[in-house]
Design goal:
Blueprint: E1 18-26, E2 32-39, H1 50-67, E3 71-76, E4 82-88, H2 93-109, H3 132-145
Antiparallel strand pairs: 1-2, 2-4, 3-4
Bound molecules: zinc ion (ZN).
Length: 157
């Protein structure tokens, strides 16, 4: 089976919350696609419950696109400790961490239920499984800990 970089990372060595560049892939037309690890909570110590994670996902989809060029996708890890962010082009981890920080600040303070896209039966695959309360509580916790631009050494932005 193909070796996947994400599974070679020693998850006991990282210090969340952080942003990590997993890989930059170059396509046949020289386009660059970047893949980031947005780790919100410490692996094997914490995991964001699905309803809160689901609401954070719907909000990051818009809030990260507002700040970063070339966002293709931002999807949660199955382990519920963070997200993959896929973008066209190159971005520094500082730039991505700053965008993530701004997005979480927005979630923690200003976002109301009416702001969330895709919360009905037509636009979401599990529309009953959302919690803005949980999303806000987890966003506050992550912001209090600070987001590092390095996965192994705390470089809080
Ligand atoms: Zn959904």
């Amino acid at each position: 089976m193909a070796k996947v970089e994400s599974f070679t990372l020693d998850h006991t060595k990282v210090k969340a919350p952080y942003v990590r560049l997993i890989a930059e892939e170059v396509g046949q037309n020289e386009d660059i696609i970047s893949n980031f690890d947005l780790r919100l909570v410490q692996p094997n110590e914490n995991a964001i419950p699905t309803a809160g994670l689901h609401t954070i996902e719907h909000l990051l989809a818009g809030l990260l696109r507002d700040q970063l060029t070339g966002v293709i996708d931002c999807s949660p890890f199955g382990c519920r400790t963070g997200f993959h962010l896929i973008t066209w082009g190159e971005h520094s981890t500082v730039e991505v961490a700053q965008a993530l920080k701004n997005a979480l600040s927005e979630i923690a303070t200003n976002i109301t239920w009416e702001d969330i896209q895709g919360t009905d039966i037509y636009s979401c695959g599990n529309y009953r499984d959302h919690s803005l309360f949980s999303a806000k509580e987890w966003a506050k916790k992550i912001l209090e800990e600070g987001i590092s631009s390095d996965p192994f050494v705390r470089k809080v932005i």
